Amino acid sequence: MELLDNLAIGFGVALTPANLGFALIGALVGTLIGVLPGIGPIATIAMLLPLTFRLEPVSGLIMLAGIFYGAQYGGSTTAILVNLPGETSSVVTCIDGHQMARQGKAGSALAIAALGSFFAGTVSTFIIATFAPPLARVGQSFGAPEYFALMVLGLVAAVVLAHGSVLKAIAMIILGLLFGLVGTDGQTATQRFTFDITALADGIDFAVLAIGLFGIGEVITNLTRGGEDRSIMTAPIKRLWPTREDFRLAWPAVLRGTGLGSILGVLPGGGATLSSFAAYVLEKKVAREPERFGHGAVEGVAGPESANNAGAQTSFIPMLTLGIPGNAVMALMIGAMTIHGIQPGPQIMTERPTLFWGMVASMWIGNLMLVVINLPLIGIWVQLLKVPYRFLYLSILLFCAIGVYTIGNSAFSVLVAAFFGVLGYVFMRLECEPAPMILGFVLGPLMEDNLRRAMRISSGDPMIFVNRPISLGLLIAAAILLLTVALPAIRRKREEAFQES
Amino acid sequence: MRPRALRVLTRKNVLAGLMFIGIAALGLFLSRHYPVGTTLRMGTGYVPRLLCWILMGLGAIIFLQGLREEDDAARPGGWAQLVPLVVVTLSLVAFALAIEQLGLVAAILLLIGIGALVAPGIKVWEALAAAVVLIVLSWAIFVLGLGLPISLWPVW
After folding, report:
1. Mean pLDDT of chain A
2. So what's the pLDDT on residue A282?
């Protein structure tokens, strides 16, 4: 059994004391930021990137991955207890989860969310282990034209799956591509958009951009929003174990949520948030009495919570097998790899099996830890919510500043991050989602590179993209996706799905 | 009541459209001397200028759509909202200017001191306590733990 051999290698790596420790730190930090509103996984991972410079690559990636899926667990806690989503991916959990808490079934809701997430985490870990190797083999046969076509498809899908206006999402991607151009043009060695500043000659560092947009931008947004009312629902959690009736209703929803989340996670632009929204809509559609939703339906917690965890995990698949980030967090993971000198792509699995399988195995271990962290220790996390935002804000601001400074020991980077913080605030106020911009920023240089390489292969003939079957198929898929959004009927459906919350 | 023409300008999509147009125009201005080349032999300016033109077109469509929408103001509130924006930016600029010459301790004090101005309901002693805790924490993590070459005190 190849799969078992691989998993054995993986567990050998993941079960070393050091890596267990890093998985635990990642899970704890992830739960923490999941519980705390006002700071999300993107900003946290960007801030902690410099901390991982000195670690073994596997350990650093294990920790960063733990933050991402840990946040999915933590986010549900506040959604249920306080009616305040800790993360965007748990927005829908508020609807029925908080109603359950008001009916005295907080414990049951929390347990179902955690157990559903764990089940989803286990299944999606196996999905990664099963489907990643064949996908990587396909990826290894890809040349520059195929990669270029794949990235086009990825960007198009990111637009289709983004919330809100399609036009704004496209504009944000273009903006990201433009910011990616800042620096020295590799072909002609001339500088573009650098304002003759030497520090910009190497381009804008990805982590600086991410910390500015997501960390500092969110801080400013929260401050302008003013004193947020955080009435904590302190009704004592009576029993943690769900009733038999709750179990009966929950388990089919968990299965559906896991399936849906696993599929949506793989799609470019997909991931945790989209999965949870879609799962809620699905549960409402298949329910025999849809009117129970909004009044504490167990399925409304079980489905989305399983889906967001499954989606968070399977979104690693395109990143690990093809080196293509499907969402902003995966873009950061790619950044972390390149910092360690690892070229992301299909060769990772064969050249660095311990890295790949160690990460996969650690995901399952991390999920197990998270059940323990979240269920018995729930009281501690609730206490954390009482930390006033004034302290939280100062700490986040400082760690953003130091984090940015340590990336390149450059005070100039802090100024760049401050600039992107202002920009991030403007984007949020104008409802322009910054996530597509990050994708554009990361994929921009890769696309330009692959485009130029493809042109060299074909000596300047653009027909190369149409003559190769795989590239043609990918481009057709992208065109179809783009067309479907343009059709009014489908556009209405899409808006419905996003407004369901 | 402000005049209608002005109110239109506060709509989210109108503003967003203007922002994209503005950025695109700036990009086109900055890249005005970059050689464009031909489609087969792309020059330095080819891709940037192409992207700027696309961005300008998208911005124009978003702007026009915004004009046609029902009244959808970006946010009531006014200039008071800009205070946190300015203060947070200033605190980061102060940190950036201080860190290399004045050292980590002074940089953190400046960042917290300025940043605390907009911390909702903070008291003076709370800000001081936060500064002390954060200085110790940053020293422990970044200097002691990670061994990064950051000087704590002013470099003369």
Report:
1. 82
2. 86
DSSP one-letter code for A87: S
Phi-psi region of A470 (alpha: psi -120 to 50; beta: other; left: phi over 0): alpha
Q: Where are the alpha helices (DSSP H) in B39-123?
A: 46-68, 82-99, 103-115
Dihedral over Cα of A164, A170, A175, A179: its sign: positive
DSSP 8-state secondary structure symbol assigned to residue B139: I
Question: CB neighbours (10 Å) of residue A433?
Answer: 18
pLDDT of residue A380: 79
CA nearest neighbour of A221 among A488, A4, A445, A434: A434
- Look at residue A163 in the predicted model and tell me its pLDDT: 63
Question: Does A171 sit within 8 Å of B44, measured CB to CB?
Answer: no
Nearest chain A residue to B98 by CA distance is A411
What is the structure's pLDDT at A499? 53
Identify the pLDDT of residue A258. 93
Residues of chain A predicted below pLDDT 50: 229, 500-501
State phi, psi for B11 to the nearest 5 degrees: -70, 145
Query: A405 and A206 in contact (C-beta within 8 Å)?
Result: no
Nearest to B130 among A190, A394, A432 (CB): A394
b (16+ CB within 10 A) / e for A250-284: bbebbbbbbbbbbbbbbbbbbbbbbbbbbbbbbbb
Of A168, A394, A425, the CB nearest to B115: A394
Q: CB A417 to CB B92 under 8 A?
A: yes
Q: Rounded distance, CA B66 to CA A438, Å?
A: 25
Are the beta carbons of A406 and B142 separated by less than 8 Å?
yes
Secondary-structure percent of chain A, ordered helix, strand, coil, rounded to 5: 75, 0, 20
What is the Cα–Cα distance from A472 to A402, expressed in whole angstroms? 46
pLDDT value, residue B26: 92
In this predicted complex, what is the ipTM? 0.89
Q: CB of A150 within 8 A of CB of B44? A: no
The whole-angstrom distance between A418's CA and the closest CA on chain B is 6
Report residues of chain B scoring pLDDT below 70: 1-9, 38-42, 70-78, 156
Give which of A361, A306, A256 is closest to A118, Cα–Cα: A306
Tally of CA atoms within 13 A in the half-sphere of B5 that contains its CB:
0
State the smallest CA–CA distance between residue A236 and chain B in angstroms. 29
pLDDT confidence of residue A226? 62
How far does Cα A19 stand from its chain's mean position?
22
Question: What is the phi-psi region of residue A115: left when phi exceeds 0, alpha when psi lies from -120 to 50, beta otherwise?
Answer: alpha
